Amino acid sequence: MFRAVEAMSRAHALAAAAAARGLTAEQLQRFTSEVGYYRIALDHLTAQLSGPQRDRLRALTDSHDWHTTIAAEDALIAAAPGTSTAGDATSEAAAHVTSGLLELWRAQNAAAGKSAQDAGDRISHGSILAAFAAVAIAVIAVSAALVAADRLARRLVRLRTDTTDLAERRLPALMSRLRRGEQVQIDQEVVRLDPGADEIGDVAAAFNQAQFAAVSAAAAEAATRNGVRAVFVNIAHRSQLVVHRQLEVLDRAEREADDPNYLQTLFALDHLATRARRNAENLIILGGERPARRWRNPVSLFDIVRSAAAETTDYQRMDLTRLPDVRVAGHVVADVVHLLAELMDNATAFSPPQSRVRVDGRAVDGGVRLSVSDQGLGMEPAALAQSNELLAAAPDFGIAALTGDFRLGLFVVAALAGQHGLAVRLTESEYGGISAVVSIPATLLSPAEAAD
């Protein structure tokens, strides 16, 4: 539009010059070109405009001023170069047409600006709405992710807590019951984890299968161990019965014998039978039961130590020195004799044959402390610590008792000490070997004879 108005203005300027002195051939050609340009431009613009602008342009092209201007332009184009024209009326009409086209251009420009502004507003509003929608979606997605992550974290924490409780508390307690020979209903006792049906649930299901298999294997092992234990305890009881009868026969033979040499042989057989009885009792103790020997009345500590020495292999090497004048409760006498005999056997076994084993004791606060000291080579610190750990808390015999370097006597000592609250500890002896220190609490001493 603006270019058409500009071309019209240039043509009318040339027409104004023609009114005075006419146009040269070159000016006339330029005039014809400008007139042709703006007319073609306005024809194209009429087809492109719509609404009020097109109506205004058509009203302008149908006006009297437009036709006057067109007629004057056509006359000038048809005239020969140098021909003067009357231009007052024509100039006024052209000015009106030019003014109308400028107003139409301004209106079109304003409409285009408003349209662009409206489009920009729509785009801006759409962008703002899209941005709000994107922010809302992002907030919802982040919230959903946080909720899912929190739920997942809580499920994982619960799974970890339940798994830790099973591994550290429930399963060890269940295993302890199985080792004690208790009857356990595996399907009822094994706690199953149930955190869901997704991948975490698959992990829990795998753990459930693993713990069920472990408990089943432990139950089968415990049943086998209990069966084996029952077998050798039964054998031990039978052996014990045979040895008791053998000792009764030997006692009658000793009372009736007159020949000193024969009597000496009977004493040796009696000693061997006593050791055989202790070995049978070892099996009974390791099997979790207690020997049948019992005393109803308290027995003096000296008699207990002398009986223990009589049951050892090298009883001639025993030196019984000062011992407190106390009595031990009858229900633990047999086990204390057995415990001391095992310690004395260890002392004679791990010391030179010609050396002596010293047994002494003294009253202390809270009971009596006995020492069995040898003159052997002693023990390495690590082995000494391991032995004291065993004596402090005897492990399950089915797991630890039959290892290659295990000392059966120490296990029996630990089992007997644990049954009656005795404390046994190995230390370095002042004679160069090892001292086994046995602490008998005052609760096991006869009240009437508890003082030194």
TrEMBL record:
SMART domains linked to this entry: HATPase_c
One GO term describing the cellular component: plasma membrane
Enzyme Commission number(s): 2.7.13.3
Pfam families: HATPase_c, NIT
UniProtKB keywords: Kinase, Membrane, Phosphoprotein, Transferase, Transmembrane, Transmembrane helix
Gene3D superfamilies: 6.10.340.10, Histidine kinase-like ATPase, C-terminal domain
Domain named Histidine kinase/HSP90-like ATPase: residues: 331-444
GO molecular function, one term: protein histidine kinase activity
Listed InterPro entries: HATPase_C_sf, HATPase_dom, Nitrate/nitrite_sensing, TCS_sensor_his_kinase
Reaction catalyzed: ATP + protein L-histidine = ADP + protein N-phospho-L-histidine
Transmembrane segments: 128-149
SUPFAM superfamilies attached to this UniProt entry: ATPase domain of HSP90 chaperone/DNA topoisomerase II/histidine kinase
UniProt enzyme class: transferase
Name of the protein in its database record: histidine kinase
